[in-house]
Amino acid sequence: MVTLSDVAKKAVVSKMTVSRVINHPDKVSPELRELVYKAMKDLNYVPNFTARALVQKRTQVIKLLILEEMDTTEPYYMNLLTGIAVGLDKYHYALQLVTRNSHEIGPCDGVIATGMRIEDYENIIEQLEPPVVLFGHNDKGYDFVDVDNEKGIQMATQHVIDLGYNEILFFGIDLDEPFMQTRIKGYQKMIEKHNLNSHLFMMKNSSHVSQAKATKQLEKDEERIAFVCASDRLAIGVVRAAQALGLLIPQQVAITGFDGVFLDQISSPKLTTVRQPVMEMGEALADMLLQKIDLDGERLGNRIFQPELIIRESTIK
Asked: Where are the coiled-coil regions (predicted)?
């Protein structure tokens, strides 16, 4: 049976280095990692993660707690899951998907939570015993990963202003949550900066709802009009409304979305959108949580990712 010592001897490194490569590869230089990985492959050495977990009194399980209702047609969470899984796989952790009704089933070493609402902090988040990291900004003192929502909407609003649009409507998601508040803030800042009139419309995150609301606005307004939307799903509804009325996109109606994970690319015309690097954010969530576990739950703060404005046919012909 091949041992850790055999791998160390083969790679001409210490047992400590081999252990570090297995348990904390990010803390070892790429050159050393390659030496150890090659030695492990040559010797057919497979680390005993079950034994390690028993010694460390860990489960090697991380829970992803999704506290909002998931739309099965929404690719957003698939991208997030992929990123988290990639991050956890580097450390040989399993990922368990749980909801508000199942999060107490089975032990785990830590929790990544998303889709929180105000009441969830007291009722669920504060009751969690393992270390927790949140996906999404919060003011409750929890570590989190998020995108710069305010900057993203500022970029989209400035873009349509630069195209000469003076009437700019904001279609937001009807949720009193930090991510939505900061997106509204980004829109209003740019509107005020350019002395334009603010038009806020809050609604369910549904393309059917946004289509109906956009139709009402477009029917009574003959001017060139732009829609800055808080999601690609809302933006697709606006596209449908403009097309049904025979209006030209983007000559008469300009439309921007937010997310950039799939719906923006299947829209016709393709959507200009604010892209969130969701998979990269998922991997960062995994890295942050595993670091917290190693540090016995120590506070790490937050990580904010920068959005990217992807300009496509819904604003530029």
From this structure: none
